[in-house]
């Protein structure tokens, strides 16, 4: 061994880098390792359940000060993360990241079964239950199960009678936000669903779909064709009657 190498080994023994000892701080519960003691101390709260950071407004506690800072924005209304495309703001950076995918069309989370893609992980997780048939959210009252927690929450209002969505105009209440949205159109007269066939507008999708299922005669379509002369008719009985011309 060269003299310079031997000197270096004496100065920087094994386990040291550039004069700094390479330490590993291990959790005595799960054996996870950390490069800094502060990170280990913070990790230990996972096992102890300690939440030393308290919200002065509502008293809620957190294991990390960063989580407390984020939580406090619920009370202050602060939204420091801004979308540079539509100027919408968010309280957390990951909210902004997910929002931007609306503009970019990015859907990085793909289903391994059917290849359907989603813009965020939670949407993919919910979708996967379609394939597995799993319904992990159970109603304690009637035992009915659901694949999504939001569906369970909505269902439970049947038992509680709770209608949290209120019309500011007439005071009528609804189980779901969609019910309130549809109801408000009674007051505003809005009819956002337009039928290009019948030239009609509707306040709810079901009437819009109904207009598209009208008999072909209402839509001016002629779907029934004579295979002898090629003439077309809007309804089958018209074609049947016409064919008698060729058989007589």
Automatic annotation (TrEMBL):
<keyword id="KW-0539">Nucleus</keyword>
<comment type="similarity">
    <text>Belongs to the krueppel C2H2-type zinc-finger protein family.</text>
</comment>
<dbReference type="GO" id="GO:0006357">
    <property type="term" value="P:regulation of transcription by RNA polymerase II"/>
</dbReference>
<keyword id="KW-0863">Zinc-finger</keyword>
<feature type="domain" description="C2H2-type">
    <location>
        <begin position="137"/>
        <end position="164"/>
    </location>
</feature>
<keyword id="KW-0677">Repeat</keyword>
<keyword id="KW-0479">Metal-binding</keyword>
<keyword id="KW-0238">DNA-binding</keyword>
<feature type="domain" description="C2H2-type">
    <location>
        <begin position="25"/>
        <end position="52"/>
    </location>
</feature>
<feature type="domain" description="C2H2-type">
    <location>
        <begin position="81"/>
        <end position="108"/>
    </location>
</feature>
<keyword id="KW-0805">Transcription regulation</keyword>
<keyword id="KW-0804">Transcription</keyword>
<dbReference type="GO" id="GO:0000978">
    <property type="term" value="F:RNA polymerase II cis-regulatory region sequence-specific DNA binding"/>
</dbReference>
<dbReference type="GO" id="GO:0008270">
    <property type="term" value="F:zinc ion binding"/>
</dbReference>
<protein>
    <submittedName>
        <fullName>Zinc finger protein 2 homolog</fullName>
    </submittedName>
</protein>
<dbReference type="InterPro" id="IPR036236">
    <property type="entry name" value="Znf_C2H2_sf"/>
</dbReference>
<dbReference type="InterPro" id="IPR013087">
    <property type="entry name" value="Znf_C2H2_type"/>
</dbReference>
<dbReference type="Pfam" id="PF00096">
    <property type="entry name" value="zf-C2H2"/>
</dbReference>
<feature type="domain" description="C2H2-type">
    <location>
        <begin position="224"/>
        <end position="248"/>
    </location>
</feature>
<dbReference type="GO" id="GO:0045596">
    <property type="term" value="P:negative regulation of cell differentiation"/>
</dbReference>
<dbReference type="GO" id="GO:0003700">
    <property type="term" value="F:DNA-binding transcription factor activity"/>
</dbReference>
<feature type="domain" description="C2H2-type">
    <location>
        <begin position="165"/>
        <end position="192"/>
    </location>
</feature>
<feature type="domain" description="C2H2-type">
    <location>
        <begin position="109"/>
        <end position="136"/>
    </location>
</feature>
<feature type="domain" description="C2H2-type">
    <location>
        <begin position="53"/>
        <end position="80"/>
    </location>
</feature>
<keyword id="KW-0862">Zinc</keyword>
<dbReference type="GO" id="GO:0005634">
    <property type="term" value="C:nucleus"/>
</dbReference>
């Amino acid at each position: 061994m060269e003299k310079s190498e031997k000197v270096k080994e004496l100065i920087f023994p094994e386990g040291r880098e550039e004069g700094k000892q390479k330490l590993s701080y291990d959790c005595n519960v799960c054996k996870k390792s950390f490069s800094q003691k502060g990170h280990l101390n913070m990790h230990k709260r996972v096992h102890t359940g300690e939440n030393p950071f308290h919200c002065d407004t509502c008293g809620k506690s957190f294991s990390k000060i960063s989580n407390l800072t984020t939580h406090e924005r619920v009370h202050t209304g602060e939204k420091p993360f801004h979308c540079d495309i539509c100027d919408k703001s968010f309280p957390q950076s990951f909210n902004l990241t997910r929002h931007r995918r609306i503009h970019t069309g990015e859907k990085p989370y793909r289903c391994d079964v059917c290849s359907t893609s989603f813009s965020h992980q939670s949407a993919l997780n919910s979708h996967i239950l379609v394939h597995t048939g799993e319904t992990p959210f159970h109603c304690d009252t009637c035992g009915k199960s659901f694949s999504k927690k939001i569906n369970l929450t909505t269902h439970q209002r049947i038992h509680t009678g709770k209608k949290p969505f209120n019309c500011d105009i007439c005071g009528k209440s609804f189980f779901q936000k969609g019910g309130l949205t549809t109801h408000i159109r009674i007051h505003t007269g809005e009819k956002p669903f337009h039928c290009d066939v019948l030239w009609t507008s509707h306040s709810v999708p079901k009437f819009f779909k109904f207009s598209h299922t009208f008999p072909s005669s209402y839509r001016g379509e002629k779907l029934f064709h004579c295979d002898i002369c090629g003439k077309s008719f809007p309804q089958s009985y018209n074609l049947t009657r016409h064919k008698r011309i060729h058989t007589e």
